[in-house]
Amino acid sequence: MTGGALTAAPAGHAAAQAAPLVPRTAGVAAAQAAGPYERGPAPTDALLEALRGPFTTSEQAVSPLSVRGFGGGRVYYPDDTSQGTFGAVAISPGYTASWASISWLGPRIASHGFVVIGIDTLTRTDQPASRGRQLLAALDYLVQDSPAAVRSRIDASRLAVAGHSMGGGGSLEAAEDRPQLQAAIPLAPWNLTKNWSGVRVPTLIIGAEYDTVAPVATHSQLFYESIPASSEKAYLELNGAGHLFPATVDTTTGKYMVAWLKRFVDDDTRYEPFLCPAPRGGAIEEYRDTCPHT
């Protein structure tokens, strides 16, 4: 529930993150015809696990005085203008937290070919439903009112949401409220609502084995199970991690967030082998999915 310092990841978390994952290859997908939204080189494990992707990025502050419906934040976007427009992602922090608590996600995701807005919420105690509305307001700002240097880079038909804790619960709210979204990624999501049978947006839920704030048995797993099997979905549980795992740079989180966004926002099938068959080992305690993705 909180983005503040309630729990810390156990010491074993760092060791788990350092363990190698089962190698993935993109050979089959790379041989398929290129899609219209493919951006950047063919993916590899090394590329997805690096601190930055293939695109250089710029960023701009978003003043809360210049927007409606959310509390401002920061926008990150690729410098490249030669490959067409990019998909866009809005990300919310957790309860009591600001965007700064998970800000590493901004340049990490943007450098793989996305426009990212990390939001600050109207108040730090906003509940998930409010955070969901704020995520959608932030996407609307990007495609309608952001500076031309940002707006011109965005494909308004390819939008996604993500968030941590109550922000993760908010991303589920946003996905249910706006089924036109292309992807949602709740991180250690917290929400009093347990049934998300109305979600049709491809959703990757990342939970933490030792989360005592939003325990996976009563949050992430229930949320995943309630999303219909007819909707694309996956559940990744981090081995040895606690509720605050998104507050520090996490290779596994970054890798699979990018792979999911690439697969469903960009419809880039080169990333399918990183998701199907299910990744195993190392930092991953458990992975469930609806493979093969269509």
TrEMBL record:
Q: Which InterPro entries does UniProt cross-reference here?
A: AB_hydrolase_fold (IPR029058), PET_hydrolase/cutinase-like (IPR041127)
* Catalysed reactions, semicolon-separated: (ethylene terephthalate)(n) + H2O = (ethylene terephthalate)(n-1) + 4-[(2-hydroxyethoxy)carbonyl]benzoate + H(+); a butanoate ester + H2O = an aliphatic alcohol + butanoate + H(+)
Query: What Gene3D superfamilies has UniProt attached to this entry?
Result: alpha/beta hydrolase
- Location relative to the cell: Periplasm
EC number(s): the record gives 3.1.1.101
Q: Which domain of life is it from?
A: Bacteria
Supply one GO molecular-function term.
Answer: hydrolase activity
Q: What is this protein called?
A: poly(ethylene terephthalate) hydrolase
User: From which source organism is this entry?
Assistant: Nonomuraea rhodomycinica
Lineage of the species this protein comes from: Bacteria, Bacillati, Actinomycetota, Actinomycetes, Streptosporangiales
